[in-house]
Specification:
Elements: H1 6-18, H2 28-40, E1 51-57, H3 72-82, H4 87-95, E2 98-105, E3 119-121, H5 139-155, E4 163-168, H6 172-184, H7 188-191, H8 200-216, H9 239-246, H10 249-263, E5 268-269, H11 273-285, E6 293-294, H12 302-311, H13 327-345, H14 349-352
Parallel strand pairs: 1-2, 1-4, 2-3, 4-5, 5-6
Helix pairs in contact: 1-2, 2-13, 4-13, 5-9, 5-10, 6-8, 6-9, 6-11, 6-12, 10-11, 11-12
Length: 356
């Protein structure tokens, strides 16, 4: 991963001091512009061609009744995004972002577009296995999911100035809770939320399913990570092994997208609890990804705050969002682009002929 460009960041900081405004009067926008200069290596970043990548996949654990909706909704909603009928579609249109839709492993045949946007086929398999009964996938599948994400970043997202992570998959907040617990050591009771809006009784059931998934897969150790007695040789702190045991194809793909984007100096905006789990996986796989991850909102799922804290990210806003799809990350794109546009387009005092 490339280091943050300190010279570009310093040049941006000096420009901020010369712009026609009182020092610090644009608050966090000024800090964001400087940070983005360092990430992109451009003292006046434009973040052209922003793109929201929405990856979809199914999860065997959905058959345990952890969601208000059946698995068939994953396919229907991925097609809805491709047709431009989803919330993330509307928000992306408002903020001037493109949308990339990826089938990472929806149950059944590959998802066809049926709309104005192509659905990219990066299928690892037709949905994962039930994490509460055993590993979600094979080691080869976990590696394939990460590799597919890196490949997507370095080909289809190569021209994007900034990328927002989005997802779709019935049952994936359960998987996100299991991954978050395994990678941070957090208590499943604390981080497992209501997902699609289920009642407290089903939420309690979700907690039990997450706990069972962790125990069944040997992820309940003294340190909250993989149990050394259960782990395969050399896998005790292996994030790919965690992904294999309690992950999802779309989570692995988004983690790979983050890694590939960071390698290309492309900032990545993290959405809610599922893409937050992907961000945790990405950082666990490649720690140098961390500076390239940017926050969006504080999600309504309780595990999201734990993820943001672990990643060292301070949310930009809190609108009580819990939809996923990349909706919060798409909304945040407007803030990041505004920070860069004001940094680039504002006149300096000398250019405006204003004495200081």
């Amino acid at each position: 991963m490339p280091d943050v460009d300190a010279e570009a960041a310093e040049a941006a900081r000096e420009r901020q001091a010369d712009l026609t405004k009182p020092p610090g009067s644009l608050g966090r926008l000024e800090d964001l512009a400087v940070a983005l200069a360092g990430l992109t290596g451009d003292p006046r970043p434009t973040l052209a061609d922003p793109t929201v990548v929405v990856a979809g996949a199914d999860h065997g654990v959905a058959d345990r009744g952890v969601s208000a909706y059946p698995k068939s909704v994953t396919r229907a909603m991925l097609r809805n995004v491709a047709a431009g009928g989803a919330a993330v579609s509307a928000i992306s249109e408002v903020v001037g972002a493109g949308t990339l839709v990826v089938d990472a492993g929806v149950e059944g045949a590959p998802v066809e577009a049926g709309g104005r946007i192509e659905v990219v086929d990066e299928r690892i398999g037709p949905g994962t296995d039930d994490v509460a009964a055993g590993p979600a996938m094979s080691r080869a599948d976990a590696v394939a999911a990460l590799s597919a994400g890196v490949r997507t970043a370095r080909t289809r997202l190569a021209d994007a100035g900034i990328v927002a992570l989005g997802e779709m998959g019935i049952g994936n907040t359960t998987v996100a809770a299991a991954l978050t617990a395994a990678l941070t050591g957090a208590d499943p009771e604390r981080i497992t939320g209501h997902g699609t809006g289920v009642g407290e009784e089903i939420r309690a059931h979700k907690v039990a399913v997450v706990e069972r998934a962790l125990a069944t897969n040997g992820l309940v150790g003294a340190d909250g990570g993989i149990d050394r007695d259960e782990a395969e040789a050399g896998s005790a702190v292996d994030p790919v092994e965690v992904l294999r045991r309690v992950g999802g194809y779309e989570v692995g793909l988004l983690a790979g997208v983050a890694i590939g984007c960071a390698a290309d100096r492309t900032p990545v905006v993290v959405d809610g609890v599922v893409s937050g789990a992907a961000a945790l996986v990405a950082v666990a796989v490649a720690g140098d990804v961390r500076p390239y991850l940017l926050p969006s909102h504080l999600g309504d799922e309780p595990g999201h705050a734990v993820q943001l804290d672990a990643l060292g990210l301070a949310p930009l806003f809190d609108h009580g969002l819990r939809l996923g799809e990349g909706s919060g990350a798409a909304l945040a794109l407007a803030t990041y682009r505004a920070a860069c546009r004001s940094h680039d387009r504002m006149a300096t005092f000398a250019e405006a002929g204003i004495e200081r």
